Amino acid sequence: MDNKLLILWRYFPSGHIRTEEIAEALQISQKQTTRYLKKWNDEGWLTFIPGRGRGNVSRLQWLKNIEENFEDEVLLKLDHEPVEISSKYLMYDWSTDTKIRLMNKFHTQFGFVQKAKDKLVVPKRFPFRTLHPLDAADAHSANMVSNVFNRLVSLTDQGEILPELAHSWDVSPTKLRLYLRKDVCFHDGSVLTATDVINCLEKLRFHEQNKDLWTPIDEIVSKAPLVVDILYSGGCSYILPLLSMMTSSIYKESKGRIYGTGGFLVEEDTDQKTTLVAFKEHFQERPLLDAVEFVKVPKDFPIVYHSSMEPDHHETFQVESDSGFGVLIMNAYRKESQIAKLEVRQYIHQILAMNRHRIREYESRAIPNDNSCMIGNRLPYSIPRTVRPEFAEPLIIRIAEHTEEASRWLLDTFAQYDIPVKVIKVSFEDAIFNKQLTDQTDMFIHGEIFELNQDLSFYFFLTNGFAPLPLILGKNRKWQKRISQYVHTPFEEWTNLNVEVEKELIDEAIMIPLYYQKRYIPFSTELMNVNIKHFGYVDFSKLWLRPTID
Fold first, then answer.
1. Of 85-89, 110-114, 135-139, 342-346, which range is least confident?
2. What b-and-e string marks burial along 175-198, b requiring 16 or more CB atoms within 10 Å of the CB?
């Protein structure tokens, strides 16, 4: 079965044809095209008579219906092959009707498989970018980290600190002493020690993207087995919340692999499939599932969590999940640009506010937001009436793949007001890691998803190296001083501080709230204990399927 043959069938009927047209459609050379045509001719799919002489066209005659034959073959494979192998056929260039039939059939392969072991098979549209806690800059990867690794403590969305790898702690103005649990095993069977914890935290506090968060920390040492001291002479009000973040996950690296202590261990990780298996020696409650498999599917494949016990019919219920928010970031301290002028930024804010309601026409999941980015903190603010400034040169706008729909709204709004722009399109990776691009850009739409606790996540948004604001605000002494207040403010007072800082960002038109995003995930009614946890994703360790008992 060859996708090139399917493409040829779909776009070239029997009749006269030029080989250069076929080569262009198949995106291969004319020499390769000739070889393929001869092969398919010999296999009996078609008859191909090449044109003789210069300017003479060739003739193609189909002998079989390629799509019907391939569809029958794929349906047979779906019944007999593992889902991660058969899923590649969904990427073929099918007609709409055939693709719908195959996707419906393929969808029955997902859900809970309750045989000797309980397994949940989950469709995924993209491979996970990383499973390393220090490099997980996107929510998909960070959610995987939350399942594979543990932190020393955990932090609820209400701000309560709970024990995890550390069972107890003592806090003073200059030191945090952590007492580690005994006999905690990594996924390779080795036992967690104070040295493992120190190694992880030392890498973290000098990590390029996280070191600013860890500036208050002077030293991390161990003076007794299973005891870790974190020293900070200038105080660090948020040290315990800091240890609860995904980046603070504890891991062990050995022979080119990374091991965690979490409820699931990584059995396999490829572009096509990632498999998590329950870690039976987990020091806390063992996951109720035995395994979770993430299998790559096309972008238009419907994501439904359902049981495969009744593949032809299953009732579902929608689970609402916060999927972050979108803001416009303006590079206020880019001296060589007119965006450094407050009146320019305020005028842009003014026209965007008048057209914010239209953003849902471009991004269906977007809910226009004219208040705070922090849920539960309505932040009414006034927008000064500003006369249109003169735009001497185009504004440079960066558009990344994951904000493309909302960015089209931005461009259309600017076109409506005759604001000249220059567009730079970048990948997700460049938007996150290429700081030089941010320096060269006047503005861009940024999507952010908070981890769990909103107060801590907003501070992380202001300071971590993966986010855009630290690069912009770090150029201004006033903002450097403003953000340094967090270190000396008790964590329970951060809500008010966050509200004040956000208002200042909006008043100076550095960050403009645009929208919230909601995700509605269909779950089968057979699935029990559906809880949304880190980054708005379901907690796999708690899911289970109610068995059918006669």
1. 110-114
2. bbbbbbbeebbbbeeeebbbebbb
Q: How far apart are the first and last CA of the chain?
A: 43
184's CB contacts (< 8 A; 6+ apart) are 165, 191, 192, 261, 283
Taking CA atoms, 4 is separated from 36, 41, 92, 194, 352, in Å, by 9, 14, 9, 56, 46
114: which strand partners?
A: 118
Considering only CA atoms, which of 310, 251, 11 is closest in space to residue 132? 251
User: 317-342 as b/e, with b when 16 or more CB fall inside 10 Å?
Assistant: eebebebbbbbbbbbbbbeebbbeee
Q: Which residues contact 8 (CB under 8 A, 6 or more apart)?
A: 22, 25, 26, 40, 66
Helix (H, G, I), strand (E, B) or coil at 69: helix
pLDDT of 109: 62
Which two tokens mark 182? 């005994």
Whole-structure pTM value: 0.74
How far is Cα 240 from Cα 259, in angstroms, rounded to an integer? 23
Q: Which amino acid is at 487?
A: V
Q: What are phi and psi of 421, to 5 degrees?
A: -135, 155
Maximum Cα–Cα distance for the chain, whole Å? 90
